[in-house]
Design a protein that fits this description.
151 residues; 0% strand; elongated
Length: 151
């Protein structure tokens, strides 16, 4: 006696999103940026510490290292994670496309500005990046009233 098992029809794949894949999900550019920053900053910091970069680096070795570990690497990883997690928690999109690229550009601007005489602008770019990332996270959380995830 044969048992009949119904076979579900094949589901079609979701339609492909137009645009550059790097900016389709929040973790992609930020995890990539954090990895590149880690790979480049270690030899740069060693060169600065050894005195090979001269006086064109405006932060001291320890201040630059602390700044980039917190505001560069850690912020990139945290924002990449949260943009993906909040999307999963709420079912609502976090920034993608041009908005995500703009937030990444703020992060990148801050990384470059620490090498210029305008280090105050690096602080402004870091603050703008943090506020833009917070807005990108807060929008979906507030939209669905996910109070337990606000903090």
């Amino acid at each position: 006696m044969a048992i009949h098992v119904p076979i579900e029809p094949a589901r079609s794949a979701p339609p492909a999103r137009p645009g550059f894949a790097l900016f389709a999900l929040g973790f992609r550019p930020f995890y990539l940026a954090a990895g590149v920053l880690a790979a480049l900053s270690v030899p740069l910091w060693a060169a600065r510490f050894a005195g090979w970069l001269g006086e064109w680096v405006y932060y001291s070795e320890s201040v630059w290292h602390a700044h980039e570990m917190l505001f560069g690497y850690a912020f990139a990883v945290m924002v990449g994670f949260l943009f993906t997690a909040v999307r999963n928690w709420t079912g609502r999109p976090t920034p993608t496309g041009a908005k995500l690229a703009g937030i990444v550009a703020l992060w990148l601007a801050a990384r470059v500005l620490v090498f210029t005489p305008w280090t105050e602008l690096a602080a402004v770019a870091d603050t703008a990046f943090a506020l833009a990332a917070a807005a990108g996270i807060a929008g979906p959380l507030f939209a669905v009233g996910a109070r337990r995830n606000y903090f």
